[in-house]
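pinning this so it doesn't scroll away 📌
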Amino acid sequence: MDEFRRRAFEFVEKVQKLPDAASVLDAMGGVLGQHGFDYFCCSYLAPTATERPRAAVLAERLPAGFLDMYSEEQFLYADPALRYCNVTVQPFRWFKEAPYDPKREPRTAELVRRVRDFGMVDGFMIPVASPARRLGQVFFGGAAIKLPDGQLPALHLMALYGFDRSVRLGGAPQVPQLALSIREREVLTLAAIGRSTEQIADRLHITARTVKAHIRSSCDKLGAVTRTQAVMIAVRDRIISP
């Protein structure tokens, strides 16, 4: 295992024991700082009808004054990255892969310029969902990102665990989980070690369609939205041991 992945998995191992949001951000910085990641944010995509805008932020280490500017200018409604988080479950390059038209969306173009003025030139957004199925995101960014080749899955895993711990530290109610069947645990265990749907089907002598059905059932029982999140919850709660 290379150094980046090793340190990412060390973060996953210890994050559930961290006592506060600041410690979660410190741990992220310990893994990612040498790769140009200086700024971090875990937040819901939007506040609820009864929340103030800043209440949607679970944990952050962003440039001084940025959130005040963002809130005062009401950029929430012009942010292409948050908008894209509503339509994808895959990590994406911040702004570079979040589609917008600068000519037709001048407010969005202004937001992108202002963000870069604060030194957040590049980064990654990881869409996530809380156990209560409220959509959120984790942002990793900086002036010059140097993520090692092939390490986006490790960053994705860090985001899921960091967001989950931030939600729990905030006192969010937990969704009751139903017990997984033996077959569902087998499928998630194989998924956790990187096996594809077809590989799982071959190993268990079932069809790919049946594998997908077990994944969907596991997601429903665990309160997960994606396969990756289901694996994360199952490992965190020691339902499986990959």
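📌 and the second one:
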Amino acid sequence: MILLRSLAAVVGVASKVGAAITKSPEPCAITYWFPFGDSYTTTGFDPNDTLPSVGNPLGNPAFPGETGGGGENFVGFDTTVYNRSLILTYDYAVGGAVIDPTLVSPITLSLPDGVDEFLVGAGKKPATAPWTSENALFSVWIGINDIGNTFYLGGDRAAFSDTLLDAYFVQVQRLVEAGGRNFLFINVPPTYRAPLIIDFFPDQLDVAKTVIEGFNSKLAARVKLFKAKNRGAKTWIWDAYTSFNTILDAPQRYGFVDDSSFGEPGDFWGNSYHPASAAHQIFAKQISELLAGTPWF
């Protein structure tokens, strides 16, 4: 079955959806953000179309882009609302993406494809994107489809998570070789609480939970090894897993109707597998707090 497109301490969850931020962007500071991932991150950016610029910080398509849950996602919010500087965002995430197409079949492109697109484009630091190791942030939020499309197949899941993460950090290392030094990693959220998974796998939700938690634990360990291997690299982990659970355990506290409705105003889920824009605004606020004091947020 193919699903729909789709540890540092957890940052406190915002108590209100849409809470205003008090920081003001620094008008002369320009920084760059290069997100990689799947439908939880994508804005539908095409690197061969209109590029990010002053006044149009996400380039194409028209703001807020084409997102998994509809409306503005965390990338859009952090680029335009919770930013400390002017951020020009080249979003290489693609809906349906996986870590390695030889391990899990992607719906469209995969993480290596996104890295390839970056390396032949903005990665060359053209006049349109003169980023440096100091003013560029790289983020990776992937693994959702790799687990969602395989958790029910059985086998040695711990070993498979290791295999996935081996491939994951091959791609991250390519970004280091291109000059990346600032990395935000995002772990896999509890997608077993998504209506789609509940509907299709009601008897295997505990299996999905165990697989996701195992992957996330290994990801946190790999981030530590990555930082130790690459002197000068700065890393952050936003704990999406804990954040989602905190909100879904008390949805009314955060302005949502319940933990399972989707597609209507007041729902946490924008559709049966993706958080709504209102949820992404909470995520964006948390990420900005995690990276507080950096050139970006």
